[in-house]
Amino acid sequence: MAIQVDKLVIEKMILREIAMPLVHFFETSFGRTTHRRIILVEVVSQGVSGWGEVTCGENPFYNEEWTDAAWMIVRDYVAPRMLRSSSKSAFASAAEVADRSAHIRGHYMARGGVEAAVWDLEARLKGLPLWDHIGGGWFKEIACGVSIGIQNSLAELLKTIEKEVAAGYQRIKIKIKPGWDVDVVREVRKEFPAIRLMADANSAYTLADADHLKRLDEFHLMMIEQPLAHDEIVDHAALQAQLDTFICLDECIRTVHHAEQAIRLQACGILNIKLGRVGGFREALRIHDLAMANSIPVWCGGMLESGVGRAHNIALSTLPNFVLPGDVSASKRYWQRDIISPAVEVSPQGTIAVSSAPGFGYNIDHDYLRHVTVREETLT
Ligand code: OSB
Ligand code: MG
Hints:
Layout: E1 12-28, E2 31-45, E3 48-54, H1 67-78, H2 97-100, H3 108-126, H4 130-133, E4 141-143, E5 146-148, H5 154-167, E6 172-175, H6 182-191, E7 197-200, H7 210-214, E8 224-225, H8 233-242, E9 247-249, H9 256-264, E10 270-273, H10 281-293, E11 298-300, H11 307-316, E12 340-341, E13 351-353, E14 363-364, H12 366-372, E15 373-379
């Protein structure tokens, strides 16, 4: 039975930091990750819990955020404006939550972890699946790709690609950086002439590398993701004008305004939407809608999430303009055991079936969650 939700009051917020080793290290142009430290946000109203994940890394290298800073941002700046004890405690809906932390500069992932938790809470109070609550549901199964980090050798990379293609994943993304780019992509293409292939540079190049990046054109990549600086839309436009391959922006797009600028300047042909990077569902929906209106396809990026963030990504990916396979893949690629049950599984066709259970659609594995929690604080 649905509970009354015309006024949404958050009675308490529980912050948890969990620590889990990755099954395999993940290396990008900015560094190697072997262990994750993830902040989970639980918001409680009328005895019902909603869950969100802060998707920042352990270090401020992908963007300015990192686990320790995000904890303080949520505890000291976001939570006090969200809770029942704050001066304007009630929300008409989860769509209002983002505004309540809009006075904070940056820190979208910290803010987005809370925002997503309230959307999940509201969906559960209404008895709806999260994908339904956000207006999705175009896809009953979402298309999955994998993101493969920089490996110790080309042989290991080729072996990993072979395994993921055999598992059914619909596109392969490899990470590149200066010294691990054109020659690597050439070898991958030689070995796998027909796969849908793309490369992600995580801001490792500058416009001075345009001629070098142009050499990637001959390998028919679906796109090259974020080749230039994390905050540089204008140079991406200059680069896109020189490349046949589509640029896909990731780091650059934190607001719908950034997306609007990127589209107007023709800085990209494709957008990656990450729920955390843009501060939650409200902004993700806006970017999705703007891209669709401009015929820019989008896909859902990943941040090595636990099951909670992964489940949110699945809900997001059911919106109609998520027409390209995302970086949303099976739990077992990351974790020995996930904190949700069942774990996220990928079919031999490279899809994830969308759950129709209320909220994010999976159960929290409370025993395992307790086991991996290294810090916990209850805010009221
Ligand atoms: O740029 O997409 C990225 C992971 C951490 C930081 C940045 C990125 C990534 C990924 C991994 O590519 C995607 C995933 O499998 O979760
Ligand atoms: Mg990326």
